[in-house]
Design a protein that fits this description.
Layout lengths: L1 H13 L3 E3 L11 E3 L1 H20 L4 E3 L9 H6 L1 H4 L1 E6 L6 E3 H6 L11 H11 L17 E4 L2 E3 L9 E3 L4 H5 L2 H8 L5 E10 L14 E11 L4 H18 L7 E5 L9 E9 L2 E12 L1 H10 L5 E3 L4 E3 L2 E8 H12 E5 L5 E5 L10 E5 L6 H12 L5 E3 L5 H10 L4 E5 L1 H6 L1 E6 L5 E5 L3 H4 L3
Parallel strand pairs: 3-9, 19-20, 19-21
Antiparallel strand pairs: 1-2, 4-5, 4-6, 7-8, 9-10, 10-16, 11-12, 12-13, 13-16, 14-15, 17-18, 21-22, 22-23
Helix pairs in contact: 2-11
Glycyl-adenosine-5'-phosphate binds next to β10, β13, β16 and α11.
Amino acid sequence: MQNKWDEVIKLCKSRGFIFPSSEIYDGFSGVYDYGPLGVELSKNIKKEWWKSVVYKNKEILGIDSAIFTNPRVWEVSGHTTGFSDPCTIDKKTGTKYRVDHLLEKINIDCDGIKDLKEIKTLFDKHKKDIKIKGVNVADLSETEFVNLLVESNLNQSKVGKSYLRGETCQGIFINYKNVVSSTNKKIPFGIAQIGKAFRNEISARQFIFRLREFEQMELQFFDFPKKSDENFIKFKESSLEFLLSLGLKKENLRYKEHDKLVFYCKKAVDIEYNYPLGWKELEGIHDRGDHDLTQHGTFSNTKMDFFDEKTKTKHIPNVIETSVGVERLFLAIILDAYTEESLPDETKRVVLKLKPEIAPTYIAILPLFKKDGLQEKAVEIFNIMSENYVCSYDDTQSIGKRYRRQDEVGTPFCITIDYQTLEDETVTIRHRDSMNQTRIKIFDLDKSLKF
Ligand code: GAP
């Protein structure tokens, strides 16, 4: 499996999905850039999520809040005090480690333990059993909690230190009143957002799995408190359905219930993906109760409650949250789609069996040769097809090599323009998964480009 992990990382770089940030300056740990194909795949993932969560639900609306907020947001939400990871430092080398990750290596699960004393005790007790190459246990410092919020020196002297947002949903809570009053929405309804989040991760060393800058796709669903269990189940199920709809294999996804909960949570379940690193969190579904609206309502003196006509009582809405990282999903999708096939001629074919709807390029337009008017005809077809599809154009190398290149990046269809095209306005369509080729009229192309 390690092999697949290495191959996928190599492919991401060589084919322009993901580049290490600032590589020409030795990189910048925990930060990556999307290349030409990566940006398309990431956009398609976000488009599908938005369609599934916002456009298909008349009671869910989208917003796009700023990355910076008044720092009070993070004090009141509890992040300046409660949003931290347990850490130990090698006193000789200065390397920082997450204590829970070190304990995980000897099969001690610290999931959700937020009590420093509890982790400290566990670590002191089991420290001697940790045997990891390069980690000198005797040099490790006392356990301390390191806050994950990224501070900024934004010039807003009146409000003091500000932060880059640590989760996108706080932008939703602080706009709750604005959305209610501008849309006349009444509970039940939801607000969704896609955007950047930043975290001071101690160890960001697993490619794009754990990043310091990443994107989240989050939904906050507001409803009567008595509906919390029902909604929790509903969103737990719909979140899994969405992941399956992107083509992820069922056997690589599972739920993991939490009994130890982070500070804002009443109930939580993760959807885990079977990464080559092991089963790891891909998405979180949380019952946040009324924690955030109560906190922001109280400290900003804003009315967040609603009047229940039936019971003639006032309530703060319950919030069920779904939260999935774009990069973790991107990684799961590429890993799941990555396939190596042995062909009858004993060569190996690498193919990304991406769902066509999210493939970075839908059609590759390939003139057989660069001469005799084939290029011009191919450009003409590119111009027509790119009105409706994301197309790429390639006239380098042999046609066989170009097909393999398109297989590697998951392009569902290749259209080849040859001498016959100039005679009878037909082209060849090659299908990624079957490698079958069919000859059809250019006029009929549109009908043939369905999977
Ligand atoms: N608003 C709730 C929240 O932020 P979380 O479990 O801390 O909950 C939600 O994060 C999702 O965001 C995770 O399931 C994961 O997909 C993604 N995520 C969190 N930290 C990440 C990191 N350092 N790098 C990449 N993705 C991350």
